[in-house]
Design goal:
Elements (H helix, E strand, L loop, with lengths): L11 E5 L3 H12 L3 E6 L12 E4 L5 H10 L2 E4 L6 H6 L10 H8 L1 H10 L7 E4 L2 H11 L3 E5 L9 E4 L5 H7 L5 E5 L5 E9 L5 E3 L4 E5 L2 E7 L5 H17 L4 E10 L2 E8 L9 H4 L4 H9 L11 E9 L6 H5 L4 E5 L10 E10 L3
Parallel strand pairs: 1-2, 1-4, 2-3
Antiparallel strand pairs: 5-8, 6-7, 6-8, 9-10, 9-13, 11-12, 12-15, 13-14, 15-17, 16-17
The protein binds adenosine monophosphate.
């Protein structure tokens, strides 16, 4: 099912997942006059506080999913690990964006890398790993150092391990919990960047400027726009993002993480959702990634991605959220707090955008 006529204000958007991404989607949707209905298993989900309706249930509670699907005009999600049977459940009942096929491609690192390399786009050399024997064969092919990652459910560096000269295949496979995996050649990159792009039901595509991303302990710490890369590399990255989103027949906002090595741009992974490295758009652009996603899935015209200032986005992790008062006093800072009660170590509690006049 797709959406041909734009959903009017007053329609209800169903969102699977109730974390900070759902919360910022709901806030943006509210600005356009939509209602949001959040479906999430955790009773204290941050998105509930800013949404019109909620369902607290497991993603495989099909009775609850049925009631939810009858109450909403379109379904989207804030995370990629939505069970395939949950996403498929909506087919024929209510439009879902992004679609199930795109979700399945992004959920499995082998499917994802096979798809991207099939488009002629560079990715790290990779091989399928099912057990210690196939890991040994993959190491002989790809060499060391390399990175072993679980095929599914990895995030923020979880479910992956670096294999250097001394680590045995058995140790590495045990470190990732002996799960189906992918072995990737180690990319000696200069920078990490990402492309945030959007596509509507009609195929219209809009792409934001490219941020440069820095991680600490495998968690995104800052995104800076513009990235310190030459215009040709930035353009190449943007065109790879456009190519991927169109080839996936995708509707909504996508985040594509990439490595820059010299003049080369190598795609690392796809996030089929709004992305942390796009949070700078909330204050740096006419239309944020969150509003853009809502526009795309509701059949509205896509908004302008024009950037009106330079931005450094910084995540507030764990008790760094205690900086809120000092940050709020800074005139060039805009702060966004997710309303989570417990500031666990490394947990994304909020972020701030530091804005400076656009230089280029
Ligand atoms: P991922 O979970 O795939 O996003 O990986 C998390 C981080 O690990 C990336 O942001 C990179 O810093 C690093 N990384 C992942 N894959 C590779 C690779 N093939 N070569 C070098 N570094 C990598």
């Amino acid at each position: 099912m797709d959406i041909r006529d734009a959903l009017p204000p007053g329609s209800t958007i169903g969102i699977l997942g109730g974390g900070q991404l759902a919360r910022m989607l709901a806030l943006a949707a509210g600005n356009l006059g939509f209602r949001c209905h959040i479906f999430a298993p955790e009773a204290d989900s941050p998105a509930f506080a800013v949404s019109a309706a909620r369902t607290v249930a497991r993603y495989t509670d099909f009775a609850a999913l049925k009631t939810f699907s009858n109450a909403v005009d379109v379904v989207t999600y804030e995370f990629e690990n939505v069970p395939a049977e949950t996403a498929s459940f909506f087919a024929g009942r209510v439009p879902v964006a992004p679609g199930v096929a795109a979700l399945q491609t992004a959920q499995d690192r082998i499917a994802e890398k096979t798809f991207i390399s099939g488009l002629g786009i560079p990715v790290a050399p990779f091989a399928d790993v099912a057990d210690v024997e196939s890991l040994e064969a993959a190491l002989a092919l790809i060499g060391r150092p390399s990175i072993l990652k679980t095929r599914r459910f990895g995030y923020d560096g979880k479910g992956q391990t670096r294999i250097d000269e001394t680590k045995s295949a058995a140790t590495a496979f045990a470190e990732i919990g002996q799960q189906p995996a992918i072995l990737e050649g180690f990319v000696r990159f200069d920078k990490e960047i990402s492309v945030i792009a959007a596509r509507g039901w009609s195929g219209e595509v809009a792409v934001y400027d490219v941020p440069e991303n820095h991680h600490e302990n495998h968690i995104l710490k800052t995104s800076t726009v513009p990235a310190d890369i030459c215009p040709e590399v930035a353009e190449k990255a943007r065109s790879l993002g456009s190519h991927i989103i169109a080839a996936l027949d995708y509707v909504g906002v996508i985040g594509v993480e990439m490595f820059v090595a010299g003049e080369e741009v190598i795609v690392n992974e796809i996030a089929p959702r709004v992305h942390n490295s796009g949070h700078w758009t909330m204050d740096g652009c006419c239309v944020s990634q969150f509003e853009q996603h809502i526009r795309a899935i509701c059949g509205w015209p896509l908004g302008s991605t024009e950037r009106h200032c330079d931005v450094v986005m910084t995540n507030l992790l764990g008790d760094e959220i205690n900086r809120w008062k000092a940050l709020a006093a800074e005139p060039d800072v805009r702060i966004h707090i997710y309303g989570k009660t417990e500031a666990r170590r490394g947990r994304k509690m909020g972020h701030f955008n530091r804005l400076t006049p656009r230089q280029a």
